[in-house]
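Support request, please re-run this one:
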Amino acid sequence: MDNQKLYDLKIAGSMTVSGGKFNRVTISGEGLITSPVECEDFSVSGMSTVMGEVNTKYMKVSGKTVINGNLSANHLKISGDSDLRGDIRVKDLNIHGSTSVSGSVFSEIVQIHGGFSVGGDCTSEQFISKGGFNIRGLINAGNTDITVHFPCRAKEIGGEKIHVQKGSGYKFKEFIRNFISSLDTTGLKCDVIECDDIFLECTTAGIVRGNNVTIGPDCKIDLVEYKNFCEISRDAIVKEQRKI
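Re-run finished. Output below.
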């Protein structure tokens, strides 16, 4: 993309415009873009809606945005509220606000400090969470590192290594749950976890399968299958364990 031949798109008030190719897109007001956008930089501090896909190098959202299509970017940072209604393909995804993705996520690095909801799968080299998430499909990551402050949900987790530990917010929510019986499990909840090296705290799962498995406090596991090593805390509940 040649910046010298492209114009900037700036929306400071309330405006409806067509999409196209731009150098920079900056929205500090309320903007509706009626067709796909391709640009070097996309920044939202107001409210924006794009009726189509977005292809950019850098995207930063500190306001609210809705994208009715797929999103491709090198770097995506969200500290506001985003509703992304397609697939996401990025190199670096950093979430401090609230983000909902209807499709699947493909990123080299996923970092969650806020709330993250994904309708499909999440594939990455590194999946790091210090917030809360609901992944309705598979987390497929080389390294998964979860510090539980808020409820975390995934249908399945697979990869090379997973480490799940309690965060500072976990104890408070466990205290509240003791008085509200209807409140769901506050830790990580997953049907199947299958990684080479596994360390779990505050996790509820159906099947945990790996080479080296450590089941720490506050875990409830139906079945643990392991090849080399398995250690289970006295403060964990494991219905069945099996060496394979």
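The longest helix spans residues 168-177. The first strand starts at residue 9 and ends at 11.
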